[in-house]
Amino acid sequence: MSLSIALQLYSIKDETEKNFELSLRKVAKIGYEGVEFAGYGGLTSTRLKELLDELGLKACGSHVSLDELEDNIDDVIKYSLEIGNQYIICPYATYNTKEDFEKMAEKLNEFALKCSEKGIMFGYHNHGHEFQKFDGEYGLDILYKRTNSILVKAEIDTYWVQYAGLNPVEYIKKYVGRCDLIHIKDMEIIDGEKRSTEVGNGIMDIKAIIVEAEKQGTKWLIVEQEFFNKPSIKSVEIGYKNLKKLI
User: What HEC string does the chain produce?
Assistant: First the structure.
């Protein structure tokens, strides 16, 4: 298979906040091929590139806040180029109305055009709140339909798709050619409450997601976890090993 496995570093934010460089070393030791950033630990692009090269890790993407994209997109692009990152992702936005989704789509198109001019891809990552409906249509679908299908990638978070009551595989199929990066997160239900758990230890059909990702030509499966009952670095190690077996 051509699928590579990366870790969204937000998963181990308790580690990265203490020692960013050591955290990357731990991730590389587990076996991850790449990392998706959610901040750079205060490192210069030069130092981070040196560290990635030393550890054999690739920058598969970077989550950058909407505020940062609006205020400093040129600097965001420059930093990404300097560390060899090819994907800038908007990870979150708030919405109340259909018009909010339509306006956001315009912003995403603008960001994507700027990124494409420098040879970088741009994308949007979903949570669960984008699955509110307007005139029978999910907000996330409004967003993707109104964005350039070539320039704006769909970083589908499969956990949040299932959280909303939809089938992640069928949802990925809707956006053929746009799912270069897919978030892999598993789900457990405790006392009726849905929460994330180690990949492979929950109820989601991870294998089916992998099969569809391969059909689509997805480049990276990105492990993410937000709830832990053991040390975060141990959980993402379990997730990596389980996912590796499934691939």
Answer: CCCEEEEEHHHHHHHHCCCHHHHHHHHHHHCCCEEEECCCCCCCHHHHHHHHHHHCCEEEEEECCHHHHHHHHHHHHHHHHHHCCCEEEECCCCCCCHHHHHHHHHHHHHHHHHHHHCCCEEEEECCCHHHCEECCEEHHHHHHHCCCCCCEEEEEEHHHHHHCCCCHHHHHHCCCCCCCEEEECEEEEECCEEEEECCCCCCCCHHHHHHHHHHHCCCEEEECCCCCCCCHHHHHHHHHHHHHHHC
